[in-house]
Amino acid sequence: MQHQTQLVAQVNKIIQTNLDRRAGYEKARKEVRDPQLQNLFDECASQSNRYVSELEPVVTQFGGTPVTDTSTTSDMYRAWMDVKSALASNNAKAVLQSCEKGEDIALSAYREITNQQQETAFDPGIHQMLRQQHAGIESMHEKIKSLRDQQA
Prior knowledge:
CATH superfamily: Ferritin, core subunit, four-helix bundle
Strand content: under 5%
Distance between the termini: 54 Å
CATH architecture: Up-down Bundle
Structural class: mainly alpha
């Protein structure tokens, strides 16, 4: 039973990370005028929506209730406040730097859950899903970093 409670808490943390990530990208999308960045931010928000949809049944399967709200005290929230500040200055490089910081935080949350010897604690299918999601966020991080590096 404790294993199930721990699993639910860990997966809910990842769900909340994705909810925070989605909210940040939705906000950034509304504020930027560059179509390339708008498309990228849409893609990032959609990716988080997919990940939440994949993870919610896991929480339910193990007797939990999936979280539905973003956090207001997390590092992710603070990163998105940096995005908001960068948007105010209308500086694409600053926006991308803040987005990269947000992706770093998301990657850290995934690393934490996948590196804790979860092969034995999680069902292998759940572990594989988390690893695939982690890889997807790593890929998005690289896109953001590449765009950031292209800015003057």
